[in-house]
Amino acid sequence: MTSLERIGGFTLHSAADAGALTLQLWRALLSLPRILPVVGNRRRWRAAVGQMLAIGAQALPMAGLMSFCLGYVLALQSAAELRRFDALRFVIDLVAVSFTRELGALITAIAVSGRSASAISAEVGTMMVTEEIDALRVMGLDPVEFTLAPKYLGALITVPCLTVLSTFCGVFAGYVFLAFSVDMNLRVYFHEVVESILLRDVWLTLIKSVIFATIIVQVGYLEGLRARGGPEAVGAAATAAVVKATFLVILADLAATTVFYVMGWSAVG
Amino acid sequence: MTPAATSTGDPVISIRGLSVSYEHRRVLHQVDLDMYRGEIFVLLGGSGSGKTTLLKQVLGLARPDAGSILVNGIDITSCSADELATVRRRIGMAFQASALFNSLTVEENVALPLQELTALADPVIALMVWLKLKAVGLARAGGLLPHQLSGGMKKRAAIARAMALDPDILVFDEPSAGLDPIVSAGIDELILFLKRAFGMTVLVVTHAMESAERIADRLAMLHEGGLIAVGDREHFFGNDHPRLRQFLDRQPEPVSGDTAEGFAASFLHWIDHEH
After folding, report:
1. Long-range contacts formed by B272-275: CB under 8 A, 24+ apart
2. Are A254 and A52 a contacting pair, CB within 8 Å?
3. Are A134 and B85 an interchain contact pair (Cβ–Cβ within 8 Å)?
4. What is the SS3 assignment for B42?
5. Which pTM was predicted?
6. Is the CB of B96 less than 8 angstroms away from the CB of A43?
7. The complex's ipTM?
8. Interchain pair B95, A135: CB under 8 A
9. Contacts for A156 with CB less than 8 Å, ≥ 6 apart
10. pLDDT in tens, B253-271
11. Where are the alpha helices (DSSP H) in B121-259?
12. SS3 assignment, position B113
């Protein structure tokens, strides 16, 4: 196979992936009203609450700890440089701005991708292999509404919440470092944090987290649907889901940040 | 091939000129088949003969390249999604691997179609679930999860779920697969009981000859995507098509250089002559 054929094959494959994801996302969005409480089906809402626990609540310790560690490392690394210029107080700005604008959402997405993209694709892949998805269709039930939509709603609600908490953990790590190194006061630290961040940054990060949640759930589900054959197909689907979801999250981060920058939304106020 | 007109009345399922291919590989070619109300129709075929593909077509799980499939008078190859959903509610399907939802108990599995597709009150659903489980001999296993069931019990639970909405047509994919002869015979008896008690039209896809002989009213044999024999028991078992005879008489494929035996013979020949 020539390089040109390989590039062509990759392009066609990527275009097919993008088309399948878009179609699946559209069908999931159309199903969402039937998942909501009061107006929707109460069994679906109950399933969505279960997904909120699985995707969101249970990921909090991991995402929080990852953010805390990275926040501490960031403070440590920057302090080494800033101390030389007697500008140690800028560690607060650096950690707060980095986490609010970028790292909080990204680390949360990577943690959720590692846990949930694989879990979703393994679950759906197993359902494909054991013909449960076919059974749903034969019964006249829509697999998208039955299996995908509750997960999607669960992620749409919990990933932004998780992002806020994870961001707080990262920023708090900066305080822990400064408290140990220069005996920083908690009230002073958070006063400085509030001064350095903008409400607009928080909104933009929350928009990003919604995009990341969409990517993780949709990619996980699509890879699960592609599982054919036996258990090894489920394992392969889970691996493909994590790799693709994590890569697409970073790609989407690049695209979203570029758009925000070009539109002038993320300029320093 | 013209379907043998041994049964009377309008067919419940009528397949005409059905052709299906996957990635340029022809899986079904110009298949014509009729199934009549109240009969047990057994579709036989070896591995890769196209019988699972035909089954998926009858269930509306895939679209054909050409042809039509009329189920209760509705062409499921060209009907709307709503019409297809209506048709599917009249068909119950017991999958080869049971396809029970692993996170739900047996009762919840059987109750699922009733909860989702009817407006029945919970006590009525509970009663209907009990009746279905009683009919398949699982009245005491309702609270168990699928992984706690034996192979035969899983098949019975899948049959109970397939019957939940009182379908006109019951479809079985390899009902004897993975079961010992005694349990397999029990499933055959259950299929005969369902036909007698509820007057259902039953389509069974299998390669198990003993089971087919015991339960079938009419049979058909698929080979390389085409039907080579269709008819009632007498005509079918008297058919002298070579491939059908080979299948019925359990004869292996002729030995050639490509098979293990052929390879072994070649190897021995090489040893004799070289050493």
Report:
1. none
2. no
3. no
4. strand
5. 0.83
6. no
7. 0.79
8. yes
9. A210, A213, A214
10. 766 555 666 667 777 777 7
11. 122-135, 151-162, 181-198, 209-215, 233-238, 242-248
12. helix
